[in-house]
């Protein structure tokens, strides 16, 4: 069922009153376990990557594995940047494959939070990417998340939330009603009256951070009161740690691979358990039918150089283009190429991958593209053809590796 649009998924969950689990992954063992667990109970799922965990993996190297695994999954999947620190992180996350993003400005003043979030929305809208906002503050209590989320709890105010939604136009909102990041101390006490008021007034999917440690009834009540996404990590980390400790205690001198052997199974079981508690189990088919597939676009430009390129250093010309174009938000990859045959009708090309069809317009109007195209590219390459290809395969499913032999959705311009 593959990678789908996050806004569509959350709207479906919100309407049907279930919550999708957003599980932070820190390595391929967690990634495989999250997807296996969701597939095991036929649940849509959100693979989440928190910037606070970037110390544990190379984000740029890890993301191709995340995207590929999501596209091969048998349930609907979205890829979310969680607790991003800056607009730069958002740009980078979109470039490497996230189709949902969040910048955490929840400890800032309301005005500063609105300003920061509005900038994220502006950038993400041009890339077709979902934006999660956060209002109120969910602190860390015990475990590694305690130091990553310092400070006191701040409950979400209804008046502030109404202003925030009106001025930012986020797609979903993380609210604070009594949960914490990490492990809870004592029995959890959640303000469901506050949550119900927020849900009734805002009419958008709500998000709960700090989903570990709640009771079965509380998970059901969250979904019944407008929560469509529940972030969950500490429970997975604890399950993995228990597996490793048990393996270490069972042998005198266990090898590393033996120590981590049970991690996938432990994390998978916790994912499957919580998907059922969130009400997401068995929803994959209906969610898939309600969601748009996430489709990237291949922006192809074939061209010839003026005067046969006699006075152009093509390598330098191409390098300049890669640098200028590659920095534009929503551009995932830029490749420059030359024809194998010198008698080909066009001797040079750009292959530029966009994160989504929405990038076609935002890229065309972006000042970096306009400046490079008007001042450098068009004067040097007057003979050119541009076509935008939606990547699909002959069975109608998305395909990343090649252009389809079926007629694609495309637009062509010789200019």
From TrEMBL:
This is Fructose-bisphosphate aldolase. GO terms for cellular component: cytosol. One of its GO terms (biological process) is reductive pentose-phosphate cycle. Residues 395-415 are annotated as: Disordered. It comes from Roseivivax sediminis. Residues 402-415 have a biased composition (Polar residues). Pfam families: Dabb, F_bP_aldolase. SUPFAM superfamilies: Aldolase, Dimeric alpha+beta barrel. Residues 297-389 form the Stress-response A/B barrel domain. Gene3D superfamilies: 3.30.70.100, Aldolase class I (3.20.20.70).
């Amino acid at each position: 069922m593959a990678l789908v649009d996050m806004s569509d998924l959350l709207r479906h969950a919100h309407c049907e009153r279930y919550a999708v689990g957003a599980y932070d992954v820190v390595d391929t063992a967690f990634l495989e376990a999250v997807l296996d667990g969701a597939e095991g109970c036929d649940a849509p799922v959100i693979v989440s990557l928190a910037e606070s965990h970037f110390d544990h993996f190379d984000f740029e190297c890890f993301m191709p594995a995340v995207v590929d695994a999501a596209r091969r999954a048998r349930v609907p999947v979205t890829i979310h940047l969680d607790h991003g620190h800056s607009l730069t992180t958002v740009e980078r996350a979109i470039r490497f494959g996230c189709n949902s993003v969040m910048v955490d400005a929840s400890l800032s003043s309301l005005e500063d939070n609105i300003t920061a979030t509005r900038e994220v929305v502006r950038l993400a809208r041009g890339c077709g990417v979902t934006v999660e906002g956060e209002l109120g503050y969910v602190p860390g209590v015990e475990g590694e998340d305690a130091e990553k989320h310092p400070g006191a709890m701040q409950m979400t105010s209804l008046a502030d939330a109404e202003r925030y939604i009106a001025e930012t136009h986020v797609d979903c909102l993380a609210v604070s009603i009594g949960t914490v990041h990490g492990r809870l101390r004592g029995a959890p006490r959640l303000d469901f009256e506050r949550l119900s008021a927020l849900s009734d007034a805002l009419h958008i999917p709500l998000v709960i951070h700090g989903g570990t440690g709640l009771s079965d009834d509380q998970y059901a009540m969250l979904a019944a009161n407008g929560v469509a996404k529940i972030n969950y990590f500490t429970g997975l980390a604890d399950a993995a740690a228990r597996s490793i400790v048990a393996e270490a205690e069972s042998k005198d001198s266990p090898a590393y691979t033996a120590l981590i052997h049970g991690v996938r199974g432990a994390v998978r079981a916790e994912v499957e358990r919580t998907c059922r508690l969130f009400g997401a189990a068995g929803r994959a088919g209906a969610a898939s039918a309600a969601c748009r597939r996430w489709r990237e676009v291949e922006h192809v430009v074939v061209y010839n150089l003026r005067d046969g390129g006699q006075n152009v250093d093509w390598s330098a010309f191409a390098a300049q283009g890669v640098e200028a174009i590659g920095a534009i938000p929503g551009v995932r990859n830029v490749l420059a190429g030359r024809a194998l045959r010198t008698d080909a009708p066009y001797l040079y090309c750009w292959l530029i991958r966009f994160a989504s069809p929405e990038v076609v317009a935002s890229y065309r109007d972006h000042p970096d593209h306009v400046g490079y195209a008007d001042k450098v590219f068009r004067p040097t390459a007057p003979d050119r053809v541009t076509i935008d290809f939606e990547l699909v395969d002959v069975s109608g499913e998305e395909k990343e590796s090649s252009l389809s032999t079926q007629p694609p959705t495309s637009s062509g311009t010789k200019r």
